Amino acid sequence: MQFDLDLPKPDPGIRIIAGTDEAGRGPLAGDVVAAAVILDEMCPIMGLDDSKKLSERQRNACFAQVVEKAQAYAIARATVAEIDQLNILQASMLAMQRAVEALQIQPQFVYVDGNRCPQWQYPSEAIIKGDSRVQCIAAASILAKVTRDAEMVKFDKQYPGYGFAQHKGYPTKAHIQALQTLGPCPIHRESYGPVAAVLS
User: Fold this and answer.
1) Which of 32, 4, 34, 1 is nearest to 19 (CA)?
2) Does residue 61 register a pLDDT over 90?
3) Spatial separation of the C-alpha atoms in residues 81 and 93, rounded to whole Å
4) For the segment 133-164, what is each residue's pLDDT rounded down to a tens digit?
5) Are strands 109-113 and 72-78 parallel, antiparallel or unpaired?
6) Do the beta carbons of residue 133 and residue 53 sit within 8 Å?
7) Positive/negative CA dihedral, 164, 32, 144, 71
8) Which of 1, 108, 162, 182 is deepest in the core (most CB within 10 A)?
């Protein structure tokens, strides 16, 4: 894809730039997972794009390339309990902060997907639709989504009947029906409306 060249640029002296993104704001179940990536300009990664625009096979191929070629990457999360306690926006910010802080090489500047940045010490810029505009955010979006999707497939075996392997926790018709029939399981977000409705 053609990435956006007309972006807010950090100071010319800044060389170590990370991108961060999360996966899993919308689902009714599971953690919100974030990733942070510092790409290596000398090792380009083919096929990078917004993770939602790629097929599962393409995402997995890009995931392997990012892990192999990035200067640094990290994956972090905020738990279901933290989502219910903080709200999903604050939990997403926390997950992205944890991912950036876990990078083995600490960035001088961070591009953040979305319209706001976490409250942290890093110089940063929020980029709306950043996962389709900034390479390092696209890489982070792929790491986060592939990681979270794999976890939901495992949860499908641990909590059968909900269809987690298919919908990954998102509020599909089948998921809502299973939730109403079986009741919530331990990975459901109790603060989300459809889950709260069943609990009440």
Assistant:
1) 34
2) yes
3) 15
4) 999 999 999 999 999 999 999 999 999 999 99
5) unpaired
6) no
7) negative
8) 162
Q: How far apart are CA 5 and CA 23, in angstroms?
A: 25
pLDDT band, residue 4 (cuts 50/70/90):
low
User: How big is the chain, counted in residues?
Assistant: 200
CA distance 93 to 8: 21
Instruction: Return d(Cα 179, Cα 183) in angstroms, integer.
Output: 5
What is this structure's pTM? 0.94
Among candidates 42, 67, 38, 34, which has minimal Cα distance to 141?
Answer: 34
Q: Which of 16, 15, 59, 20 is nearest to 36 (CA)?
A: 20
Radius of gyration, alpha carbons of the chain? 17
Q: How many CB atoms lie within 10 A of CB 181?
A: 10
Evaluate the CA torsion angle 146, 157, 189, 192 in order and state its sign: positive
**Domain architecture of the chain: domains with CATH:** 17-153 (3.30.420.10)
Token pair belonging to 127? 């980029």
CA dihedral 185, 191, 193, 196 (to 10 degrees): 60
Q: At 56, is the secondary structure helix, strand, or coil?
A: helix
As a dihedral over the C-alpha atoms of residue 167, residue 172, residue 173, residue 177, rounded to 10 degrees, the angle is 70
- What is the reported pLDDT for 6? 59
Contact of 124 with 117, CB cutoff 8 Å: yes
